[in-house]
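Journal club side-thread
Mid-discussion, someone asked how the predicted structure for our own chain would compare to the paper's figures. Pasting it here so we can look after the session.
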Amino acid sequence: MKEVKGNHFNWLPAKRSLGPAHFVLLAGLLNFVLFHYPFYAFVFANADYKSWSGIGLILSLIILMPVAYALAFYIIFFISRRVGKALMAFFFVASSLAFYFVATYGVIIDESMIGNVLNTNTEESGSFFSAKLVLFVVFLGIIPAVFVLRTKVINTSLKKFLATTFAALAFIVALVFLNAGNWLWIDKNSKRLGGLAMPWSYTVNTSLFYVHKYKKNQKEILLPDAAITDHKKSVMVLVIGESARRQNFSLYGYPKNTNPLLSKTPGISHFDATSCATYTTAGVKCILEHTATDELYEILPNYLYRNNVEVIWRTTNWGEPPVHIKQYQDREALRSICTGDGCSYDEVLLAGLKEQIMASKKDKILVVLHTSTSHGPTYSKKYPPQFESFKPVCNSVELANCTNDALMNAYDNTIVYTDYILHKVIENLQELKEYDSAMIFVSDHGESLGEKNLYMHGMPMSIAPKEQYEIPFIVWVPEGSGQLKPLKTVSQNHVFHSVLHFLSVKSPVYNEEMNIFKK
């Protein structure tokens, strides 16, 4: 038997030659089969498949998906086969990643989700790693990509290219107009459909994300100057929660005791609140701005710092708008001054905090603590072992593989730990006898824990379940101060105006109706 030399890739199939039309159509069919189960599961669940109109819609979408994919790549391949193959291989790998998160967590790959992905830090992204993720990427991404790269695509004439392109376009247009009766249904569900179609979900929405980011103000719009109206020493601690949903706080009636300390703390009040968005960057921005807007106005810490208030920002998280203050401390900076087991968790935010407040030479102080306690999927790793009040817990990043009880227990333990941190903040404030003090805790957004087969957060607000936007808004003021208005519901924007009022900061943008404190 003759030995074959010089080929180190005998395990790979031999190169095959295909015309561009056949090749892109086969790739479109493969893309359709591998990545579109969630897309068609949604269509079948929401379209009237028992009517002729519904049957026509479903069949049209099944045909349209591979044909549209094939047409797009047919045009790219005519321009450059090398670029076409590279893009196609990349999209198979990228779609395998996107499909993993859609299938595992029930997310929608829309513009806001793209923003989450692009703003995710290394530590958070590493928490999603699993054997299942590797299998998805290898079998649904890398192997198809290898076949794409090893297939020889032959040239086609300009005449044949134009004829095929025209025929495909005419076919797609005819299919669209045959479904004119379903246009309203498609428009109504466009965000969901667009967020499940691969690779269009992440390609189109990534483009939209950068277009809208470019259009936003490159520099924040400064607010009118403010003035401090008295010299009383006052300190406000604003704690920004992460993925804390209201319904799992026993303060709001949850049957499990997730607030064992706050429930016994005098001076605690709570309001029903909803978030502006279901993801961190928009939620935190809303908490810190004077009104809900797409513009980048000067946020609360920057505004107060510019107007002679001492501002301390401590964070174990990410995603806030640009913060322009002197005392900004992240996790690493805080660990250098922290001792004990709690330094690996959000308790690090409290290290030396009381001393830092006392060292200030200013009368008015705002402290912002940006936590990460309830961020998934690794809920069981977000609190020290002694706070595992509810067992058993889910330890997998593949949340759908956990029982509902185990998943809920792990999440509830993060709320118990949040309860402890807030209680420690209050204890620190109570020791500052010379200061008027208060604490506000508000979450950036909520969290899905398997309801409707959805996990975590990030759904578009138009279709998001209440679990992702109903949030806690908890306030502490010294007992007997009677400082709070008898409000039932508030918004994240109440924070800005309430902090201004408490710190006696007079501003042209102040809105008394958005203030939770009595005059």
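Post-session note: Confidence is low (pLDDT under 50) at residues 1-9.
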